[in-house]
């Protein structure tokens, strides 16, 4: 398996949208049902010209994926560094607030698969604001994940919406307006 630097340092992969999505840890490795795991792998494999980086807390499964040249699984990736990379095109996440704020900061469209707590509300806000797509966990399969990836990769409106929201977010948080908003709900 190549080192992370080798993956990030590669030239952009030719595709209808060059770059690579990254998938945050959606499931703890102990709790992921095999059917979801298989569907995710099959979906990623169906995009051979796109590199997928998957944070998954079980490096042992790397052997399963040796035949897939476009899927890299590691227990840890430098999330902020990846989000800052202009080649990253999509961020697939469970919808924790930190992950969403980091993706917004770097204007990365998201596919959010919420698991619990605030992630349900966060993911609905991501979709409502045009920052990405909500994909409910019980509906996660090859077809829905493929459709979500194609919907984001093939549409410039998502990039436009998230860029606009990011500009607003940065303007508000870097000015006196932030203090006014924070203090006056």
Written description of the protein model:
It comes from Strongylus vulgaris. Belongs to the UDP-glycosyltransferase family. The chain is of the alpha/beta class and 185 residues long. The chain has one domain (4-183): 3-Layer(aba) Sandwich (Rossmann fold), CATH 3.40.50. It is built from 8 helices and 6 strands, in the order αβαββαβαβαβααα. The protein has helices spanning 4-8, 34-45, 79-84, 97-105, 119-128, 142-153, 156-173, 176-183, and strands at 20-23, 52-55, 71-74, 88-93, 110-112, 132-134. It starts with a helix and ends with a helix. The relative contact order is 0.13. The model is unreliable at 1-19, 25-30 and 180-185 (pLDDT under 50).
CATH topology: Rossmann fold
Distance between the termini: 49 Å
Shape annotation: globular
Helix content class: 40-55%
Question: What is the H/E string?
Answer: HEHEEHEHEHEHHH
> Strands of the largest sheet, in order across it?
3-2-1-4-5-6
Quick one: how many beta strands?
A: 6
Beta content comes to: 5-15%
Per DSSP, the total helix count is: 8
CATH superfamily: Glycogen Phosphorylase B
What is the count of structural domains?
A: 1
Give the name of the CATH architecture. Answer: 3-Layer(aba) Sandwich
Oligomer: single chain
CATH domain class name: Alpha Beta
The assigned structural class equals: alpha/beta
- Mean pLDDT across every amino acid position: 75
Rg estimate, integer Å: 17 Å
Question: Could you describe the largest sheet, including whether it forms a barrel?
Answer: 6 strands, parallel
Weakly predicted, low-confidence segments: 1-19, 25-30, 180-185
């Amino acid at each position: 398996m190549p080192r992370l630097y080798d993956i990030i340092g590669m030239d952009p992969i030719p595709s209808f949208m060059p770059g690579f999505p990254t998938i945050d840890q959606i499931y703890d490795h102990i709790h992921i049902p095999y059917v979801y795991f298989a569907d995710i792998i099959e979906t990623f494999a169906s995009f051979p010209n796109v590199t997928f980086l998957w944070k998954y807390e079980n490096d042992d499964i790397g052997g399963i994926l040796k035949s897939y040249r476009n899927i890299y699984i590691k227990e840890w990736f430098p999330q902020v560094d990846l989000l800052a990379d202009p080649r990253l095109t999509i961020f697939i996440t469970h919808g924790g607030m930190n992950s969403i704020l980091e993706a917004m900061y770097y204007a990365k469209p998201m596919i959010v698969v919420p698991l619990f707590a605030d992630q349900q509300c966060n993911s609905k806000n991501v979709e409502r604001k045009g920052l990405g797509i909500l994909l409910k966990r019980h509906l996660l399969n090859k077809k829905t994940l493929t459709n979500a990836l194609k919907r984001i990769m093939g549409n410039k409106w998502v990039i436009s919406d998230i860029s606009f929201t990011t500009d607003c977010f940065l303007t508000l948080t870097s000015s006196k307006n932030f203090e006014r908003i924070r203090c006056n709900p």
